Amino acid sequence: MPQATPRSSPPGARPSVFLLAGAFVTGMFLFVHGGCGGDECQDAADCREDKGPPASNTEWVCEDKRCEQHSVQVPPPDSGTDSGMPDSGMSDSGVPDSGMPDAGMPDSGTPDSGTPDAGPTTVSVQVLAFNDFHGQLEEPAGQILAGVAPDGGPVRVNAGGVTYFARHIAALRAANPNTVVVAAGDLIGASPLLSGLFHDEPTIEAMNLIGLDLVAVGNHEFDEGSTELLRMQSGGCHPVDGCLDGDGFPGANFKFLAANVATGVDRTLFPRYDVREFEGVKVAFIGMTLEDTPEIVTPTGVAGLTFKDEVQTVNALVPELRRQGIEAIIVVVHQGGIPTSGSLVNECKGAGADGLISGAIVGVAKGLNDAVDVIVSGHTHQAYNCVIDGKVVTSASSMGQLVTDIDLTLSKATGDVVEARANNVIVTRDVQEVGAVKDLVTKYQELVTPRANRVIGWVSQTLRTQSDSAGQSTLGFVIADSHLEATKPANLGGAQVAFMNPGGVRADIAQGEVTYGEAFTTQPFGNSLVTLTLTGAQIEQLLEWQWRPSGATLMLLPSAGFTYAFSASAPVGSRVDPASIRINGVTVDPAANYRVTANNYLASGGDGFQVFAEGTNRLGGAVDSDALEAYLKAHSSQASPLPAPALNRITRLP
Q: In 63-149, which ranges are continuous DSSP H helix?
């Protein structure tokens, strides 16, 4: 495979603000317009909005400001491995039972060369990629670092919002009819109220309008379990809540992919890959999530599933794809890397080898077969544009703030990638919103507003998710306190201490009024509380497991009255002083039993805290967001808002 060429700045380069337009000009040249009159259009989105879906096997194209339908080549419905079908993708005779038909191509995968005047020898394919959307239909908070000003200061711009995201996708798609739109996981899950309250059906419907083609499953796709995820694909009303928006749910028009999520021997939850054909050249998209998904998802959500090694999964598929005459391979994986803080969206700077990004995706890229040309990644919510081991490796931040425009040049003779170039395009808000998507968002805003705006309490200062050097956060403590209060009565569990996982605290709560929508946003998973019995020795073991042999650290957030000290320099497994572990000032007895509350994610061993799973005498409790609402109502008023708790429950020692 030839060396891939990213459209990014050389390592160490920092463009001035005057060169900023180069970072996203690709996605801007068709965007700004003042609407269409009569039959005029500006891009394909206008055609979809004004004229409805195109005919079968065609796509709208805006040519000379008029809508035209152009034919497109679409793979058959059974492309890839069907859910529950054998993982090999091959029949007993060795004939592929997935992917595209040969389309006149010999078994060797080499198309007829034709005559010298047969036309172009290459075909251009565009892949538009994003990741970690998390149901962010409205404009997300925060800004994207877009450049560096002449004085050295940062240039930041507002970015994201699904109505603007849709317009950027449409404009980029209009530049090349050979376009595939893909997402690298966490499309849904951990979503704001607007999507989460409706079990993320609004996000699926929005992506149908936008024209998403493929999505690799991420860890948050399993937040409500694999059965619910299958409903996202196939449609139908929620089995408990029904269709909360008052009409049916059609499911996803796009395909979920899960190459490394096995339901049994040689079976996968969703197809392992999808094959698209462009002017006689096939391109394979392999989709999967990180192998460690069971460690960061509620165990009941992944019950019966096996998550396989990412590298081994892809490398085992390469020979199968090549037998189908496929040389162009793109991996869409929910795993990622970490760039240097302050990096621009098209840089690759980090603490890894050669000054490039670090993180798990680096090892994945280096381990994958050289037949892989491009890796679309996610999970870390970072932006980067890299070449690692000859493979283009990209990530588009999160929340729909960026779209990665990947341009491939494919050889018609060999089917291989001749050149691959990538550019992270900022989803600016200076473009016209797509009307059909805006109407969808407005519909759900009207449905959710009365509940979201209900005031449930007041706080005297902003409660923050950010932790101090000991792993403490004010919002994390308030949530843990609410969980303890909800389960403290003897008939509700008799809890003596509650623990909250920091990854479950998703957003700050601003000073002043607290609405239901804010409370939901900070705990969007709908977890229920579980009270169980642990011994004092198990509690010590629980605390020690906050520091992992791998070097990872996950600090639990304890409720008021629980205190302990740890030594940051002591060996892993021996950092907590047992004598310092106290409940209401009394040292915990290793042999005594204690009632402990955690959300059902932690209680079943989430985040790798298997000690919780060993707890006995379990009793289910309230939903976590309801517990927080009750706590705020009981402990705050407009005249006497809830103060932020002191960060004095965990003591960090040298």
A: none
From 636, 647, 634, select the one nearest 512 (Cα to Cα). 636
Distance of alpha carbon 472 from alpha carbon 485, whole angstroms: 19
- Residues 256-267 have a mean pLDDT of 96
Rg (alpha carbons) of the chain, rounded to whole number: 26
542 CA to centre of own chain: 28
Cα–chain-centroid distance for residue 343?
Answer: 21
- Diameter over CA atoms, the chain: 88
pLDDT tens by residue, 133-182: 999 999 998 899 999 999 989 999 999 999 999 999 999 999 999 999 99
CB 638 within 8 A of CB 512: no
Do 543 and 649 form a contact (C-beta atoms < 8 A)?
Answer: no
Q: 391, 372 in Cβ contact below 8 A?
A: yes
- How many helices (H) and strands (E) in the chain? 15, 30
Where is pLDDT greater, at 384 or 607? Answer: 384
Q: What is the mean pLDDT of the chain?
A: 86
DSSP assignment string, 590-647: TTSEEEEEEEHHHHTTGGG-HHHHT-EEEEEEEEHHHHHHHHHHHH--SSSPBPPPPS
DSSP 3-state assignment of 306? strand
Tell me if 188 sits within 8 A of 232, measured CB to CB.
Answer: yes
Share of the chain above pLDDT 90, in %: 70
Work out the angle between the directed axes of helices 624-635 and 474-487 (0-180°, nearest 10). 100
Do 376 and 335 form a contact (C-beta atoms < 8 A)? no
Instruction: Kindly state the average pLDDT of the residues 86-101.
Output: 34
**Under 8 Å between Cβ of 440 and 205:** yes
What's residue 543's pLDDT? 98
Q: Tokens 């990854």, residue?
A: 503
Give pTM, 2 decimals.
0.73
53-68 pLDDT per residue, tens:
566 545 666 666 677 7
Higher pLDDT, 553 or 98: 553
Concatenating the DSSP letter of every residue in 202-260 gives HHHHHHHHHT--EEE--GGGGTT-HHHHHHHHH---BTTTB-TTSS-----SSEEE-TT
Tokens of 151: 């004085």
Task: Name beta bridge partners: 96.
Answer: 90
Paired residues of 124 in beta bridges = 409
How far, rounded to the nearest angstrom, does the alpha carbon of residue 327 sit from its chain's CA centroid? 28
Instruction: Tell me the one-letter amino acid at 283.
Output: V
Give the integer Cα–Cα distance in Å for 608 and 601: 10
Phi–psi pair at 464, nearest 5 degrees? -110, 150
SS3 25: helix
Residue with tokens 């001749």, as numbered in its chain? 418
Beta strand pairing call for 512-515 and 562-567: unpaired
Say if CB 317 and CB 272 are below 8 A apart.
yes
